[in-house]
Amino acid sequence: MHTKLCQSCLTLIFAAMIALGITSCSATGYHPDLDKEVIRLASLDESDFPSVIQNLDRDDLIASYYRDGATRKATVDFFVSLAGSQEVAQAILENADRCAVPTSIAFALAYEESRFQINAVNRNGDSVDRGLFQLNSRSFPDVKLSEFFDPKLNARLGLSHFQWNLQAAGNEVSALAMYNAGNGSVSSGRTPQRTLNYVYRILKYEENIKALFAAKVIAGPRLREAALNRERFSFAGFGLKTQ
User: Fold this and answer.
1) Do the domain assignments include residue 140?
2) pLDDT over threshold 70, residue 205
3) Cβ neighbours of residue 228 closer than 8 Å, sequence gap 6 or more
4) Cα–Cα distance list, 227 to 64, 112, 140, 217 (Å)
């Protein structure tokens, strides 16, 4: 799930590419991040399977697209559509990059916490969670009421806090649990069931976001171009011209 692209995403995209007649031999369909990874996995021997399964490295392909001037606009546009807001998308993208938090995790976390609603409020007895990343009033006592609803500030504080949890925990699963239940509960082995369910949902959201990004931003333009080329070829075969 946490390889360069989730293998299920790669398999689906590669299958679609094959269906449209695009393989790495096609100049219009070739994309190194997709084709090379699929070919690498396909060429492995059975003896290599354990090393693939045990690989815990995480490369943030979405972040690399965001940093690349050639693909930055397409990346931003995708997340604007996802979040339904330019302001929210930019706030999460910028602060995820600044805090070195995986982009898909950052958006999945914000979706779980607030559904990308900057004015979201949740009361918890003696404290209140507010804003995009549901900052807790007890955890952030110096933040003014109006500041909780500033998406840039909320994203900066929320993702900085998550990054602190990530450094303390060493992995996203424990960091997400700490974000929800607190460092003490998780470190002492008292993570509640509701928090485990919370972590499961976020990781599923993350998987879905990566699949959508792979299909829409990475493979989408090449699949459309290949389909157009096939259409042109079909018309040419009948002696017809396309505009």
Assistant:
1) yes
2) yes
3) none
4) 27, 36, 52, 16
